[in-house]
Automatic annotation (TrEMBL):
Residues 9-197 form the Thymidylate kinase-like domain. GO terms for biological process: dTDP biosynthetic process; dTTP biosynthetic process; dUDP biosynthetic process. Belongs to the thymidylate kinase family. HAMAP family: Thymidylate_kinase (MF_00165). It comes from Candidatus Odyssella thessalonicensis. This is Thymidylate kinase. GO terms for molecular function: ATP binding; dTMP kinase activity. Phosphorylation of dTMP to form dTDP in both de novo and salvage pathways of dTTP synthesis.
């Protein structure tokens, strides 16, 4: 059986990556692939409970360290129960956020040491990296306005100040620059169809 592919979508709030995850999953299914579409934090019953703790409530509910530990706990559960089994049976996994989000949010955004966060990831999931990562880039002011227009209670991070979101954007650009073998930068200011076709081309390439 051919090996599965692990594709992650990264970016700040309101960049449109979740929409593009769904479109790419639909496209790949039409091509005959088994596709698992999932998200982080979340993807399992336990990880979804952790998600609810992280993305709702007061901005100051958790420290950056607590967030990082909760995220990694959720990620291990997600990997062990969903992602790894799917890849082992030859499925494609499309995941809305993965470890890069922890680097961007808790590292660049919240100010935690980047090496500490990578070491934490490599301690709990040694050697685990996506095959391909799409990094969606957009002016944070535009993205936050988009995100806050959605009817959802999951707005804890959206409510953080613009400086946090600017640092996070810088973090994502650094991640894309430092991991060119797997990261592809996407201009999230383009229209939905243009982005979708661009992703198709990058998958084929």
């Amino acid at each position: 059986m051919s090996a599965g592919k692990f594709i992650t979508f990264e970016g700040g709030e309101g960049t449109g990556k979740s929409t593009q995850c769904q479109l790419l999953a639909d496209y790949l299914r039409q091509q005959g692939y088994e596709v698992i579409l999932t998200r982080e934090p979340g993807g399992t019953d336990g990880a979804e409970l952790i998600r609810a703790l992280l993305v709702s409530g007061d901005v100051n509910r958790w420290s950056g360290v607590t967030e990082a530990l909760l995220l990694n706990a959720a990620r291990v559960d997600h990997w062990e129960k969903v992602i790894s089994p799917a890849l082992n049976r030859g499925a494609w996994v499309i995941c809305d956020r993965f470890a890069d989000s922890t680097i961007a949010y808790q590292g660049f955004g919240r100010g935690l040491d980047i090496d500490f966060l990578w070491n934490l990831h490599n301690s709990v999931l040694p050697g685990v990296q996506p095959d391909l990562t799409f990094v969606f880039d957009l002016d944070p002011a535009i993205g936050i306005n988009r995100a806050l227009s959605r009817r959802t209670s999951e707005v804890r991070f959206e409510k953080m100040d613009i400086e946090f979101h600017n640092r996070m954007r810088h973090g994502y650009l650094e991640i894309a620059k430092n991991h060119p073998q797997r990261c592809r930068l996407v201009d999230a200011g383009q229209d939905i169809n243009t982005i979708h076709h661009h992703l198709q081309q990058m998958i084929a390439g």
